[in-house]
Design goal:
Four copies of one chain form a homotetramer.
Chain A: H1 13-37, H2 40-46, H3 51-57, H4 61-71, H5 73-76, H6 90-107, H7 109-119, H8 123-149, H9 159-179, H10 186-201, H11 210-215
Helix pairs in contact in A: 1-2, 1-4, 1-7, 6-9, 6-10, 7-8, 8-9
Chain D binds a DNA duplex (21 and 21 nucleotides) through helix 1 and helix 3.
Amino acid sequence: MTEDTARRPPVTRRGVRTRQALVDAARVIFERDGYLDARLSDITAEANCSTGTFYTYFNDKEEIFAAVMEATKNEMLHPGMEHVDGVDDPAAIIEASNRAYLESYRRNAKLMQLLEQVSNIDPQVRELRRARGWVFVERNARAIKDLQERGLADPDLDPVMASRVLSGMISRFAYATFVLNDGGDFEELVYTATRLWCNALRIDHHLPGRDAMRKK
Amino acid sequence: MTEDTARRPPVTRRGVRTRQALVDAARVIFERDGYLDARLSDITAEANCSTGTFYTYFNDKEEIFAAVMEATKNEMLHPGMEHVDGVDDPAAIIEASNRAYLESYRRNAKLMQLLEQVSNIDPQVRELRRARGWVFVERNARAIKDLQERGLADPDLDPVMASRVLSGMISRFAYATFVLNDGGDFEELVYTATRLWCNALRIDHHLPGRDAMRKK
Amino acid sequence: MTEDTARRPPVTRRGVRTRQALVDAARVIFERDGYLDARLSDITAEANCSTGTFYTYFNDKEEIFAAVMEATKNEMLHPGMEHVDGVDDPAAIIEASNRAYLESYRRNAKLMQLLEQVSNIDPQVRELRRARGWVFVERNARAIKDLQERGLADPDLDPVMASRVLSGMISRFAYATFVLNDGGDFEELVYTATRLWCNALRIDHHLPGRDAMRKK
Amino acid sequence: MTEDTARRPPVTRRGVRTRQALVDAARVIFERDGYLDARLSDITAEANCSTGTFYTYFNDKEEIFAAVMEATKNEMLHPGMEHVDGVDDPAAIIEASNRAYLESYRRNAKLMQLLEQVSNIDPQVRELRRARGWVFVERNARAIKDLQERGLADPDLDPVMASRVLSGMISRFAYATFVLNDGGDFEELVYTATRLWCNALRIDHHLPGRDAMRKK
DNA sequence: TATGAATGAGAATTCATTCAT
DNA sequence: AATGAATGAATTCTCATTCAT
């Protein structure tokens, strides 16, 4: 569906190398100049190949952007609220999850900003972002449902709806903090996000006070 | 310093009229075509003036976009968590506040989408959006602090930090719903937002269950 | 002939003042930005009047440039090789003449540069420059003829031709020195110009050597 | 540093051909319309290529003008006062030198006029002209010094300063004659220039009278 | 596969000049 | 006389995409 006119993948070893060089170069240029100001000629220059070569592997800027996103998928697939081996305290799991998410966001801030930018321009990328977000939402929804069933969370909340709101809350917070540079001490960010998340679900936690948390 | 070539505001009635026509036209075109696809010539055509006239008042697209945003400031400065006459139930105030915010967002969805899009393109607009966000954040932070002092909200939260998270939560929620069309029944949205907000602050509410809310 | 469509001169006192303000402003702007980059709107802004007012007094940029040149005529009409009261030594007269010319050029370097620039653009100004040069050439030609008749200068030179060459020599030298900034000590410039001029005419001078001249 | 966006020179034969076609076309258009009235689109039309191709090799009009000047460097680097094989009469050498210079100037009058015009507009070209002028000045300064050392020229002149004045004299004379069309018989021009130059340096010449010279 | 030159549609922008007030 | 807003013709410049080698 999205690969209608896509160039066939490279078959020779040299082809693989060239394509990879283009994708790497594109990431550099996109992060440096943003999606709109990135010129294909900048990308090919960075990749040390000619402009014509670009079209051997990609049809246009959107397509190479998709390739960059595909290549960085692993860096971006944020950890969700999942089981942590040997830990069963819901609050601790949530905290670990939030910390992992925020750390990952911070590490990939440039890329996240790019994703945000392009998803406001290209519907296909918007779809990509939504799909990625949804993975996160669903994982958290399952966790919430589980807590509800175990009587540990507010049963009056629709798990999916609550997850959408809370997942969005964290991602928006991360965006404001690491892309818009709203700032704040990292541990405090984790603490606040976690406490609000737990409170929101009415998790019967025995959270320590702020000061105790901070000492960690 | 940044206003090198800034056009001066009109002094005659005619000038005021023309400038306003341009701003109005720009809003129409921006909402119709998006920021990137809007051509200045479309704007001047819509405003029934020559292309040259555009430059009497603005230097470029960014500048007229800023003017559009300025002109719609009142529509966009969302109501926050403030006192509602004769009501002292915190949960009711929060609900009213959220409802007002979401309604306002829904009404101006196109404009909000634009703001979102352009703030990922133009640093000046990014700053504008951030500033507007902070108005909201600070107002809510004051309300949270007040509730804490009255012993009605979780005292272990930093008011500003908590407000950043929760304000972001609502705005992200509104964006997903009204811009990305994630859907959902409006009353349910208000209910969920409010419940999560109250829970998050550990407000000692006596909220009715979901079904009761829905009947409203 | 040149005043075909010229605006009528101002009659009221206010008109005189405004026109003068425009001419003064034009000189400032022309000297600052050069003829080509000077915008009429810059001139009117500098003169504290509206753009429309410009056309009350001038038809276009060329016309106000002519007015600037007219206004500075006195500063620019360079002294020539004329009688100096009580002095009859031809070499001394030539030296005084060259010194006066070079000083005048140095003082008005900006204006001379402008005249040079515009005369390469506007034929009318080219004519003006030629006419001004010619005044200088003729005055010097008369002086040369006089010296020849008195047996003090090389009789094998055509006075007008020699004057053209020598007058041009000084003006070109002044241009290179004060506009192109070729530099050099002022007294040395005067000395060299004078000595060459005298030599060229084979004036039977008793010129002191370089070092003696320099001590002056 | 100043070559931010400088286009790189062509590497293929085709590229060389196209670039050359553009430079040739530019010379035609510049000579026909003058620098200011020359439109890039005229140049590309004359070169039979698209407007975009222009930017493959040049950034703007100034740059292609510089390329035209570079390409005509050999035609323009005027012969100076140098040794003429088998001739040792200084006056004869000076005459040959002046004749060569004036002939070269006459041949390239259009180009010289352009150089004059543009150097009053573009500082880079001004620098270029100055540099070219200095080549001439220095060569003549060396010749003057040589004559002084051999006791054949006025020792009280600084060679460089005298050369500046005299070289400027010839170039100004040529400009007036061939660009401003001040007229005059060519042999008479050569005669006058030579006689004045020799006189100015007090070269002990045995120049024939004017009429004798003219018969050549 | 790779190259790099050629293309050209399309939009922004300037500013002298006019003109109604 | 003065004002200042409106005009629009005219050019430059960009860069994704094609294509011959």
